[in-house]
């Protein structure tokens, strides 16, 4: 996967809690056998009418967020299904960082396997970011190395990320290749159980 | 004396392949279940790197999400067809056993694992599906994974996992008559919220849990993910052992089975074990539940009224309630029992086992489905279907006006043709009431099989306890 370290980008605020993976990518788009091309289906039922025309009232269709690469959302983002199509769709659409007060476990994990950085900030900090981004084009910088979110003004927020996930994201490693360096240990383990 | 341990700690310790400071543990996986939707990209990843499946014999595949439930072999959707063919090709290329669409072992992956005895206490079990927590009913550590992890398990038979926090959900007392395992888990999620289990493995304990049958325990563990927990489990006991006795993949010889059974029972959490978090709920206070909103925590007793956003408490904010009511087409203060339904779906990995179908059939025996309601029953597996037919349940359902279908995930997530049309309302025995889950614009109400059956007859929600009583006296 692509490594990610420091990312500067435009914020798209989506002020809803418990956004589940069925909303991020509805099931009718899970039938494809490729990893690519899911961006067009992101938040499909929120973005489009039944006839495929865009719902103007849904904020992601607003031109001002067209080049957004940082999604800021409410608590428990990515709850529900384990479908990795959700991070694939977010990434393919152009999002590189997701900020929320909390994430569902499987979704968080899936992001880190794809070079998307999930950042957990407090409820108050995310609200602050959302409010700013709702009123004006708002660019922030997310620095994984130093675990810091900042803007051109005085917003500064540090965040936690497990050391292992941080290392994987910073280096963009192929996790399977890393694990296979322990292949002899796996073989040894298997030998004790047969 | 050894330090008291939870079942999670006991299973974990037996599966650590490699441990080093500052890293998650490298955990060995005993059983990897595979289905058509979340695996194609994983197999493709293996091919691109010229990697093999490390342990095909610990991997088992079936088709469930896409499969048609009317004519098995008529798959109209070309993309679905290709996805199913891809699984077939991948299993054949990598030497993995597959319960194909016309195989007698086919069914929902979380229904067939236990049926075949693949699911066993103490195993680490994964699948690219969040309802893998179902297998926890047997005292297995079972959790859903994404496709990258599917690929990782295929290639290495391991996963990097940080030890989870433990959460004990103690259910005191006994469930009342007519109150089911489904009502219990819905009430738990309603009480503690859709993310109280995040970062934890839930262990369900207490008198009410001990009294549940294995199939009821599966219903409870199935919905752990709806509380945010990747896994939920129940310590094995004699019921666990008796369920597994004679199943195809458990030890055959009496001696080796008894030895395994003793090991399984020894996995039970020690009485003095400590947990990161403990919550309690009184079983006797639980009534039959109906979900009214767009997440499984938005659930109420059937006797209650739809909440008023202006009286929002902490669990759901005013905006959340307003959005949910708008999507669901409900009015604040409306009696839940007054809500009329268009569809009934009895099925899914939560409630599609033989005992679920038996209990629903008991409710509808000799009655007719309300003419405004379209009702379907989708058995969880080919084997459930065959067993149900052998005891005549299909006749009870079809005579009442239900459609009797072939096994699969079906209307739980509507990836096949079983879709609830926009704006229509479904009483569903499945696990998720998210927006659009059963079809774009579809309105889902989660209930037990008994409640779904009673609603099918009445055309609106009704307390199944009163319904059954009224029928007895009529």
TrEMBL record, chain A:
- Pathway entry: Amino-acid biosynthesis; L-leucine biosynthesis; L-leucine from 3-methyl-2-oxobutanoate: step 2/4
Q: Which domain of life is it from?
A: Bacteria
| This enzyme's EC code(s) | 4.2.1.33
Keyword Transmembrane helix listed? The answer is no
Q: Which GO terms describe its cellular component?
A: 3-isopropylmalate dehydratase complex
Question: Which biological process annotations from GO are given for this protein?
Answer: L-leucine biosynthetic process
One term of GO molecular function? 3-isopropylmalate dehydratase activity
State whether keyword Amino-acid biosynthesis applies.
Answer: yes
Name the chemical reaction catalysed here. (2R,3S)-3-isopropylmalate = (2S)-2-isopropylmalate
Q: Which UniProt keywords apply?
A: Amino-acid biosynthesis, Branched-chain amino acid biosynthesis, Leucine biosynthesis, Lyase
Q: Which residues belong to any copy of the Aconitase A/isopropylmalate dehydratase small subunit swivel domain?
A: 1-123
Q: How does it assemble?
A: Heterodimer of LeuC and LeuD.
Q: What does this protein do?
A: Catalyzes the isomerization between 2-isopropylmalate and 3-isopropylmalate, via the formation of 2-isopropylmaleate.
The family classification in the record reads: Belongs to the LeuD family. LeuD type 1 subfamily.
Query: What NCBIfam families does this protein map onto?
Result: leuD, PRK01641.1
This chain's protein is named 3-isopropylmalate dehydratase small subunit
Q: Which organism is it from?
A: Sediminibacillus albus
Q: Which gene encodes it?
A: leuD
TrEMBL record, chain B:
- Annotated residues that bind [4Fe-4S] cluster are located at 349, 409, 412
Pfam families in UniProt: Aconitase (PF00330)
Domain of life, per UniProt, equals Bacteria
- Cofactor section: [4Fe-4S] cluster
- PROSITE patterns documented for this protein: ACONITASE_1 (PS00450), ACONITASE_2 (PS01244)
Is Iron-sulfur among this UniProt entry's keywords?
yes
Q: What does this protein do?
A: Catalyzes the isomerization between 2-isopropylmalate and 3-isopropylmalate, via the formation of 2-isopropylmaleate.
Summary of subunit composition and partner proteins? Heterodimer of LeuC and LeuD.
Its protein name is: 3-isopropylmalate dehydratase large subunit
Q: What is the lineage of its organism?
A: Bacteria, Bacillati, Bacillota, Bacilli, Bacillales
